[in-house]
Amino acid sequence: MLNLVHISDLHFGNPFLPEIGEALLHKINSLSPDLLVISGDITQRAKPEEFRAAKAYLDRMPPIPQLVVPGNHDIPLYRIFERLFQPYKLYCRYISESRNTVLRQNNAVIVGLDSTNPYFAFTNGRIRREQLDFCAEAFATASPETARIVVTHHHFAPAPDYKGGEIMPKAKRALDFFTGLKVDLILAGHLHRAYIGNSLDVYPGEDREHGIIIAQCGTSTSRRGRVREQEKNSFNRIEIMKDTIRIFHYMYFTDYKDFHPTAQHEFARLSQRNYLAESSLDKNNKEKLHTDSGKI
Q1: What is the pTM (predicted TM-score) of this model?
Q2: In what residue span(s) does the Calcineurin-like phosphoesterase domain sit (predicted)?
Q3: Domain boundaries, position 123
Q4: Which candidate, 12, 111, 156, 275, has a CA 20 to 30 Å from the CA of 96?
Q5: How large is the C-alpha radius of gyration of the chain?
């Protein structure tokens, strides 16, 4: 089993809430995860002091692997020259030199993709064709039972309330591609409110039998929560087992000064659904063969 914690949109700078940050550190330590995923917007305005504070904070996390991807707030917005010519300089200096990464752990392959675009679609992001090829290469040697996870900052599916936050350009193309790669799960942030569902809820896709589980994370440590998570903070804990994926949604409660689970979702693994479908097909074929043989 892989036990991972997914946090997002820390927004170090003015929106960051130190008390919430300390509560999150305490909770993550108590959960003893195998892996920590941070899906972007680590800073508010991509300033050196914000990155330094974020780096110090992430260094206090449990000594487990971290998979981090940048968000649009991790690129300078108003420092135009820097945004055009050195958009990732500070991110690479303080957080990670790699913006597209692969992590293999506990019979899982987790691919982090940089969905930011400093020049066009700055807010909504973009996934490029070469990044899809990067995913295909990462999953090429994975066995059928290996869990396949994709992490980005920007979202591929709209929130259930459809308020704000247009999906990435060519998001449907990417979802079809990920379905072909048998991706089990997509993790993202950006919208500052959590929701958990399936890609088939919003897009039937080319393969109408196999959707991808989508788990969005709210803002884990900032005052920028939106809509139903306005002024709220949240994160997700995810258990990936042989047959199922369980997602626990945690929210911060001021009365308790702590994060507590508020919802649990359970899904059959895509590989297991394929196995069941193939088993059913084999059974039907055997029954048909037996029936035909009886006629003969």
Answers
A1: 0.89
A2: 3-193
A3: 2-295
A4: 156
A5: 20
**N-to-C CA span, the chain:** 49
Q: Calculate the dihedral angle through the C-alpha atoms of 29, 31, 37, 38, rounding to the nearest 10 degrees.
A: -50
In this predicted structure, what is the pLDDT of residue 164? 65
User: Which CATH number characterizes residue 154's domain?
Assistant: 3.60.21.10
- Strand locations in the chain (E): 2-7, 35-39, 66-69, 101-105, 108-112, 147-151, 185-188, 195-198, 213-216, 234-240, 244-253, 258-268
Domain count, the chain: 1
- What is the arithmetic mean of pLDDT over 143-160? 92
Tell me how far apart the alpha carbons of residues 188 and 156 are, in angstroms, rounded to a whole number: 8
Alpha-helix runs per DSSP H in 140-256 = 171-180
Gap between the Cα atoms of 69 and 91, Å rounded: 10
Query: How remote is the C-alpha of 294 from its chain's centroid?
Result: 53
- Backbone dihedral angles phi then psi of residue 165, each to the nearest 5 degrees: 70, 70
According to DSSP, residue 242 is labeled: S
Q: Model confidence at 230, in pLDDT bands (50, 70, 90)? A: confident
Taking residue 162's Cβ as centre, other Cβ atoms within 10 Å add up to 9
Using an 8 Å Cβ cutoff, are 250 and 15 in contact? no
